[in-house]
Every structure is written in structure tokens, then in C-alpha cells.
Request: fold
Amino acid sequence: MNTPASPHFTTVDLKAAFNCDRTELPTAMESVGLIRKQFGPTQYRGIPFALGSAAETNVILLESERGPITIDLEGAHASYLIFLHAVEFPPPRSLDGIGEFEVWEDDTGAHVSDYVLEYEGGATVACPILRRFAIHVNRHGWGRSGFACVAAADDPVTRSNQEDVALGRVPTFFGLGEQRTRSGRDHTLRDGGAGAWLYALPNPHPDRPVQSLCLVPQATRSVIYGLTHTTLTDHPLRGSARQKLLLTLPPGVEFNAIDEIDHLDIDLGPVISARRQLTYDPAQWNLDASDVQPGTSTDTVIVEYAAHPAGRLYLDTPQGLQTYTLQSLRPDIAPIAAAHRPVTVHVIDKTTRHPVGVRIHFHGEAGEYLHPKGYHRKVNAEWFEDHYAEFRNKANQYVYIRGQCTIDLPIGKVYIEITRGCEVTPVREVFEVHPDTDAITFELERIIDWRGRGWVTADTHVHFLPPTTAVLEGEAEDINVVNVLASQWGEMSSNVGDFDGGTTHTNTQPGNNGSLMCRVGSENRMPTLGHISLLGYTGELIHPLSSGGRLSLPSVISRK
Amino acid sequence: MADWAQRCLDQNGLVVMPHAPAPQLERVADVVLALGDRQWTGFSYTFQFESSQRQIHRLLTHATWEIGGSIAGNTVLSQGQCNISL
Reply:
């Protein structure tokens, strides 16, 4: 999507100050990575810059031999000046007998240059530019971030593999897809990094017109690609914490194959997701039905984002590009109460008062899923893509907890569902979160006790889960014995390392009297004759895990 | 970082700091500021090596690290991403 740059910035034409062609930059500060092929008007993280053109002087090489360089700012009013720049790489060092080697962190905090603001009337303020803080090298590595500057690259959002497949797109590799978001700093590493850094220099006197800017080099060389300024009062490179809004779609905008909206973007920050709104009926959020599923909206979408408050949201529609301002919302775009209040939720057994493992779900008043800390905003229910302690029942998403979780909740009504198998009365209710709410406790009551009559519940066919997670999920589903089965799928084997032929996994949580356990066995397969589950045996794993031909994969791996 | 470490200590855990950007001053600050109520008076590196089969090719150390002392000029070479140069 071709998202316009933010209108809150004014680019500075540096043509008169450019003194070097990028191709002539010293090796220690050569133009590399993302910026290498970018010239002319462009934008980084939604901030516009007027870069120089190719094949001419197009950067400012700031070095002591060339002396200070002055840029006329024509009395601009600015709260921040944003620089696109990089400092030269430290020279390699050598140590007796070892030869040359690179020391990335050399001279952290070294005085690279001064950016001197000159105000109308003659007053000046010199702002020191320090290595690794306001400016960093063109090539950075993992763990070598700038402290006060950010890589000049957007922060991308990734999808799970099956989502990409459903959308007809080339999936990222598996682990990256599960990360869902990445920093531009890390994302660009495979292409040599961003190549330059954005630094927002705060103007100590934003009320005074800035007549000019004098760039004064010190001992270390640096390169400046671009400059822009703004009157925004909030730091222009600092986005908000995650927030959500509800957007009513204009006619003609369709949901894609995974019920999300494409072609939606914010200039000053990423759109994390734009999912079709789930519509719950509050009157049905009770125990009258065993399962309460939401409806799905035809024209509203929940947009989750982390953007600067002055950001603008753009939606590509058949009628053209629609623009929405995050700060002044319209009837068709409404804020959803931010989930920023951390609340500890306890779930205990009414009789024993001990914490108990449960399956739990939260959503807010707009139907937005709320997940406890450590879990995912989007539960991945696809085959072999997610073995976390989570669960999805049609549209409802859940996590498994050991009697306690901490969750960021919105102020207002929160809808909760807690279940623990078929013999414990579930909870499906709404509670109110206030600005001072710290903790809330729910009690579960067992109304049927077949275990007390000598019966044992078991799930004899579980794959992929780590045994400890299987114990938790078993407790939360009131399953006494979970049999995780090592198996073979073509050339892929699963849970083989979990099998030791002897260990019965359980936990030592209060209230667990040894009646909750997991044992790893195996599911041995013959494509024609069928599969057989071998449970609880000792000694060596029984091979072959699969025999007699190629595996016919179950249909569950196909999304549709 | 200090808050995470303190909470781990409070829960009877052991804190190891494997990845951090150099210079690792926040770690030094954690030690100096007596994280976990440990009263540190200084710290140093110690090298111990014992083998009847192998010999050390080269071991370079120019000084110990001591709080209040000077660490300028020391370089530690390692294969990780956190080579230390102070």
C-alpha cells in the first residue's frame, strides 16, 4: 500500500549543503542496506525526507577537514528536528599477534559532532551528537542498537504460515510467522541493515524561530542524508502503547480469506491487525447455553495499532484512499477502551480454596479478544503451527492457566468464561474493571465427582504438546490422564524426545493429589491397516513408528 | 533489567545475563547498587585451567575489574555478539 507520509513534517532541501556523492563515501561509512538505493522524496516510518538525487552530490559528509556546514532554516518553528544520518564505523583494531578485528562498541558516547541551532536574534544552542546515542554506524548487528535513535525502517507485521497460504502469499519461515511483529532494525539485517538512523533532536526553544542549523564536525566523520522538522509536541519517533479502534468500512471494502482487511495502514506506526469484529450478545453471556459463539460483523473491523497519536489511518477503497485522523475520530471510527490496566485473575476451587488449572477467555465490550500476559493476541489453531497452552473453539479464543494469570484489561466491562471440564460449573459472566482494580478472584464448584466413584477420565490421543503443558491442559479440562503420543509423519517425528519409557509427568501444585498426569507413549501407524495407540509402556520406544508406505495426512492440515 | 533480576532473586532464582548490548554498564550498575541486597566490594575475573592433555595457546589479561579502579584499556575477545571493550 502506498501510504502517504505524515503531513506533520516539513522536509528541508539540503541540495545546497550536499558536498559528496554517496558513491564516494569512505568505506567506513558507505551507503549500504535499505538506504543504498533510495533517492529523492521518500519516507521512513512515515516521516518524509527529501533525499539527494543519484549521480550527483547527495549527502553531507561531515568531517573536520571540510569544516562546519550551515543550513538555512528560514525561521522555521520546530519542536523537533529529525535527522537521517550515520557515523563512520570504528577502525578495526589489532592485538598483539591476533591481527585485526572489529570492535563494534568502541567509543560509545564519543563526541561525533555538534548540531548548533541558531535562532533569530543570534542566540545559539549547541547539541552534542554522541556515537551510539543520537547516531550509529551504517552497519549494525544484533544486540547493537542505537540508544536514542532508531533504524530508518518500518516495523513489519508478519502472518502465520497457514494465513499466508490462505491468502495466496509466500509464507515467511515458520518461527518468523509466529512472531507476528518485528522491529525494522532487526528486519532489515538480512539486507544489510537500514543503513542510516533516525534521530529526533528536541529543540530546547520551540517557541523561537530557527534561523539556521550549523553542523560542526568533531574528530569522527559522519554522513547526513536528510533533515525534516515538525511542530508535534510528542516525540515523533515514539509510538503509543497498543491500542484498538472500531472502524466501519465504506461500501465495497471486502474482508480477505482470513477475515481481515488488507490495504489499511497508518503513517506514523504499524497496523498490527485489522480483524472482522465479533459481535457478542450480552444477554446471552450466561450459562443458559453450553457454548456461546459470537456473530460476525459485515462491515466493522477492529484495528489494533501502535502509532503516534498524530498518526493518520489510510484505507484503500474502490472509491479511493480514505483518510482518518486518530486524534479526532468520526462516527465511523471509534476508539476502543485501551487494555492498559494490569489485573491479576485468580481461579480457585470453592471447597479446597486451592488454585486450579482452567481454560479461560476474556473479551471486551467491542468483542475484542483480550489475552493474559505471555499468551497470544491471535491463537493459532493450525496443525503443527502452535503447541502453546491455548485453544480455539470456533471464534472463541482461550488460554490455559494454572489458577492465576495477569492480564491488561480495559476500564469498563469485561466478559469472562472459565471452564474446567464437564463436572465443574463453569463461569460465564461480566465484571467491571475500575481504575484501581488490581485483582479479582473466581471460585469454581465441582458438582459431579466421577473420579470419587473410581472412574478415570483420559485423553488417549494427544500429539505435539510438551508433557508439562499436557498436564496443565488435562487439569483444565478435568482429564486425569493425558497420553501424548510420539509418532511419525512422513519424515517428521514428533514427541520422540519426550519418550523415556518411565516418567509419569504430573505437578506438585496444591490440590493435585497425583490424579492429574501425563504419560508419553506412541502412536504407531500403518497406512492401510490403521493406527494403534501404545500407552504407558516402559523400556524402549517401539519401532517402527510408521511402516508400510507413505503417510496419508489428515484433512485437518487443510485450512478449508 | 534490574526489576526482572530482583523479582527472580525474590523468587529464589538465579540471574544470568547472557545477552546485552555493550558497554554493559547497566549490569555493572546492578552490581554496584547492591541488587538483591548483596553488598559488593568489588569483583574480578579469575581464570582456572587444568589439563594433562591440552595446553593454552594464549591467555591475555591486562588487569582485573575492580569497582573504583580503572578498567580502561582492557579488551575481552569472545565469539558472541557482546564483545566487551572498555
Summary: DSSP finds two helices and two strands in chain B.
